[in-house]
Amino acid sequence: MTEGWARPGPGAVRILVRLTPKSARDGLDAIATADDGKAFLKARVRAVPEDGKANAALEKLVARAAGVARSHVAVVAGQTSRLKTVRIACADPAAVVKRLEAALSAP
Description:
Layout: E1 6-9, E2 12-20, E3 27-33, E4 39-44, H1 53-66, E5 73-77, E6 83-89, H2 93-105
Parallel strand pairs: 2-4
Antiparallel strand pairs: 1-2, 2-6, 3-4, 5-6
């Protein structure tokens, strides 16, 4: 896996996500690298980018893939941008990152 898209810390992990709203399906696609060298997780949601609907759908998608409660996931930066920072509160950040990586390889 490409390094740098997930930053584990005490009690939480922050992930960099590039979100595509108004997609045909919800899902986590892959790890990619931007031109500036930053790695990010590619995600898509069916929700429209109006009134925070796409961000809420992203939080729900990440919570399900990470195996945490929806209330533990929040978009903390990039609310109106395609590139977002998502914080996942958790007791074991390494386990959450592994679950997210496993969700990428799931059909």
